[in-house]
Amino acid sequence: MLIVISMVTFGIFFVVPQWAGATPEALASRYVGRAATPETVHLVAERLGFNDPVVVQYGRFVKGLFTGAEYDYGAGVEQCPAPCFGYSFISGQPVWPDLVDRLPVTFSLAVGAAIIWVLAGVSVGVISALRRGSFFDRLSMGTALAGVSLPIFFTGMISLVVFSYGLGWTPPGGAWTDFTVNPAQWAFNLLLPWITLAFLFAAGYARLTRAGMLETMGEDYIRTARAKGLREGKVVVKHGLRAALTPILTLFGIDFGLLIGGAVLTETTYTLPGLGQFAILAIRNQDLPQVMGVVLVAAGFVVVASLIVDLLYAVVDPRVRLS
Amino acid sequence: MTAPLDVSGSAAEAHPESVLAGAGKAIQGRSLSRIAWMRLRRDKIALGGGLIVVLLILVAIFSGPIIAAFGHPPLEFHQDAIDQSTLLPKGAFGGMSGEYLLGVEPVNGRDIFSRIVAGAWISLLIGFLATLLSVVIGTTLGVVAGYFGGWVDQVIGRLMDVFLAFPLLVFAIALAGVIPDKGFGLEGNGLRIAMLIFIIGFFSWPSIGRIVRGQTLSLREREFVDAAKSLGARHGYILFREVLPNLLAPILVYATLLIPTNILFEAALSFLGVGINPPTPTWGGMLSEAVRFYTLPHFVLFPGLAIFITVLAFNVFGDGLRDAFDPRAR
């Protein structure tokens, strides 16, 4: 699957611009700047291989990812260690270290929010299902429906207006402290983004959990479990919830993978220096190597997350056995 | 979809709903859509959502006359409504008055009401057309995968997996960011609208495709398909005349639920500055301009509420529609 994604990404960002009229020289001129003479531009295009057939360029790109690449720029040879995503058009820096720098921010954001939304969403869903039709059920499902209808950049802005600029409880957008520097400050800065992001996702999880629980709690084995005289809490959690957990896990795998790949909207709203912001900047600057890098890393996380979820199925669902 | 049964006389007990409706009435066979309509009519919340959806569509269609009657042209600057020393709107609540119903924007004094009404047009246009595109792609591929099975199903199923696990937002942003200014005989925002419809529609077909494929898998085994086959019907005939009509209900439901997702998608792209270019008013674009004016809550609130109400109305209506068409629901 990563192969498909890398091919599609490569196709779109390297081949389409060339169809649209960007010559190899035009691409090369993005590296050397406007002041360069046409001869220099031509030479660079030749060195970077923009004149080669598409398949050769793709092959070289993939090879760079695994074994690193060498760029011969005339006066010497530049080493680009694996995984080599090439060099930024704008800064001339290799793309990979920049990506690695920004990963902790997005990772912190995603993990914190995920913990909150899973706990909140699943427990609200379970209680709603158990007390179907009650005031709590109607209130929480109404809130959940509103939650899935609210764009994060709107709730995020409102939360900033109210809690940061109005009440002054939380730091304004853009505050980021590394976990290793000061864990308390780290959590405090991220509190607002976590809650806002979690609210958005918790809504969907509550709806899904409720639907699943309503279905499983009507099953025969639940009656059997009750007939055995098990405590109600045990029936609900070990027999009911466990069976309803599989679709939630599937959704979680996708959501979490996508989130690590770039919480673009959240990071833009709170101006957090993570991968999502990196992606937006790269796109604004039309910095193709950076765009390529961030899309591939994002896709990679989705794949890894779904792999982990596949393994977790075996834990949750006893019918699935790892072979 | 024809009537599942043609009840007459004493068969009333076979049809619980007709009992509910009152015994003694003349009993007719009801089509599924008729039953769904009856259920929907009882669901007041869903009807409310549907009513708001209809209103929004009317507002979008008649945005020109509405703006002419209640506001100022959405692109017109009103320096007289702006305090020139602070560049903020004059008067309380962001300059809200009979003249400017929802106040004016800071700095240039554009009428927020007009811009929101004009933004409805673009949001709904993209929401509907992108959904139409994903329904066409999703239904075609879903039916083909479900009906033919085998390697065709394998290939299309894989494709859906790849699409569902794609970092769509990052990708769509990247794609929308490289839209040229001219192409396909269109220019500027006309081209951008067309491209956004294409990008959003193209990325959201798998959700419909999955549902259609699943439904087709079970329809394929039904007797009427066997009957058509044994009468010598061709694949095309079976797909379009036998299978597809039975898929209309789920397609309608999930299309209704996809429209709000697509509206949010467009708003997100415009918010990030890769959707529709300013000065053309869009809700997402208005929010991204409002980012710089945190002290003016009205500037943030109105476009955000417009998105929220629209999306919520579609979601509520779609949920009601799904419950109404669900044969398992009571």
UniProtKB/TrEMBL annotation, chain A:
What are the transmembrane regions? 105-130, 142-166, 186-208, 244-265, 291-316
Location in the cell? Cell membrane
Where's the ABC transmembrane type-1 domain? 103-313
Q: Which Pfam family is an annotated match for this chain, by its short name? A: BPD_transp_1
Against Gene3D superfamilies, the record matches this protein to: MetI-like
GO terms classed as biological process? transmembrane transport
Its topology with respect to the membrane?
Multi-pass membrane protein
Q: Keywords, A to Z?
A: Cell membrane, Membrane, Transmembrane, Transmembrane helix, Transport
Recorded GO cellular component terms are: plasma membrane
Q: Does the keyword Calcium apply?
A: no
Does the record bear Transmembrane helix in its keywords?
Answer: yes
PANTHER family hit by this protein: DIPEPTIDE TRANSPORT SYSTEM PERMEASE PROTEIN DPPB-RELATED
**Can you tell me which family this protein belongs to?**
Belongs to the binding-protein-dependent transport system permease family.
Q: What is this protein called?
A: Peptide/nickel transport system permease protein
Give the organism, scientific name: Nonomuraea fuscirosea
Automatic annotation (TrEMBL), chain B:
User: Which residue ranges does UniProt annotate as crossing the membrane?
Assistant: 45-70, 120-147, 159-179, 191-212, 251-276, 296-318
- Name the GO cellular-component terms: plasma membrane
Q: Name one GO biological process term.
A: transmembrane transport
| Alphabetical list of SUPFAM superfamilies matching this protein | MetI-like
Keywords (A to Z) from UniProt: Cell membrane, Membrane, Transmembrane, Transmembrane helix, Transport
Q: Which domain of life is it from?
A: Bacteria
Q: Which InterPro entries is this protein grouped with?
A: BP-dependent_transpt_permease, MetI-like, MetI-like_sf, OppC_N
How this chain sits in the membrane, per its record, is: Multi-pass membrane protein
Quote the subcellular location field of this record: Cell membrane
The UniProt family comment states: Belongs to the binding-protein-dependent transport system permease family.
**Record protein name field:** Peptide/nickel transport system permease protein/oligopeptide transport system permease protein
